[in-house]
Amino acid sequence: MKIGIVGLGRMGGNMATRLELSEHQVVGFDPHEEAREIAAGKGVDPASSIEELCSKLEPPRAVWCMVPAGGPTNETLELLGDALESGDIVVNGANANFRESQEWAMKLGEKGIDLVDAGVSGGVWGLEHGYCLMVGGPAEAVSQIEPILTALAPVNGWLHVGPCGAGHFVKMVHNGIEYGLMQAYAEGFELMAAADELNLDLPAIAKLWGEGSVVRSWLLELIAAALDGDGFSTVKPWVDDSGEGRWTVEEAVRRAVPLPAITAALFERFGSRQLPAGDEPGSFAHRLLAAMREQFGGHAVKRDPPV
To answer: Which end of the chain is more exposed for a tag (fewer CB within 10 A), N or C?
Structure first.
C-alpha cells in the first residue's frame, strides 16, 4: 500500500522506515530538509510540501500526520483538508486531545474526508518492536488502512477501539496510567537508594523484577538501562509532561471519576520543576522519572555537567 506521512522526526521517521521494510511505499514530508534527506536514504519518497505529497498519492489517498500536538497538528490538518479530496483518509497519530479530534472529524467530514485518530505507543523503540495502536474512526476507513496498521504494530498490537475520538481517548488514559506506574517505580527505587547501609544493586534488582515478578514490565527494563552506567548521575530532577496526564485528570474531574494515583503523579511532576538550589542533588525519584522518559520516548532531559 502507498501512504503519505507528514512529520519525519523520531517517531514519524521510524514509522516510515518500518513501513518501507514491510514493503509498503511511503511518500514523506517534513519541514526540515535534513529529516527528508534521512528518510530518503531509507527508501522514503520525499516531498517538499504537503501539496506535493498529496499529488504523489493516488485516490483514495491516505496520509498519516505525525507532528507535535497543538498548533503544528492543527496547521497540518488544515493544509491536508485543502489538499485532499472526498474519499481520502487522514490519520492523526499525534498525542491530540480526543475532543479536538472529534471536532476535526466533523470539519474534514464536511469535505468528504475521513479522519482516523490513532493513539501511538512504543516510543523510539517502535521501529524494532512495533507500535501499539489505539484506533478510532469510521469502520470503513479503518479497514482501508488495515495493511498499514498491521505493518506498524506487533502481532495483535492494534485495535479499532471505537468512533472518532476513541483512539485518542484510550491513549490519553494509557498515558495517565503510565504516569502512575512510573511514579510508583520511582518512589520504590528512591526508598531502596536511601538504604545506603544495604548497598543494594538497583540495576540488578530492576532486572530481577523483570523475571517472573508481579511488577515486571518494560519500564523495569528501561529503569535498569537508565541506572546501569554513568549517565544517570548527571540527570537533573526535572520531569516534564507532554499534556496527556493533564487531559486525563481534567476528564476525570469533568466526569467525577476519582483518580488519586494518577493525579498525584501529575502533581509530582509539577513539583519536580521547582529545582533545588545550590548543589543539592534533588529527588532521586524525580531524576529516575526523567531518565525513564528519556529511555522510552527520547524526551530531552536536563543534565548537570559531568563531574
So the answer is: C
Q: What's the start-to-end Cα distance of the chain, in Å?
A: 51
**Phi, psi for residue 7 in degrees, rounded to 5:** 105, 105
Nearest of 151, 146, 123, 148 to residue 219 by alpha carbon: 123
* Annotation says 207 is catalytic: no
- Tell me the per-residue pLDDT of 85-94, one tens digit each, with 9 for 90 and over: 999 999 999 9
- From 37, 85, 103, 171, the catalytic residue: 171
Task: State yes or no: is 178 an active-site residue.
Answer: yes
pLDDT digits (tens, 9 = 90+) for 41-63: 999 999 999 999 999 999 999 99
Q: Cell 496526564 sits at which residue? A: 245
Tell me how far apart the alpha carbons of residues 84 and 230 are, in angstroms, rounded to a whole number.
50
User: Which DSSP symbol is given to 232?
Assistant: G
d(CA 146, CA 138): 12
Residue type, 257: V
Q: Which of 20, 178, 251, 268 is catalytic?
A: 178
Give residue 184's pLDDT band: very low, low, confident or very high (50, 70, 90). very high
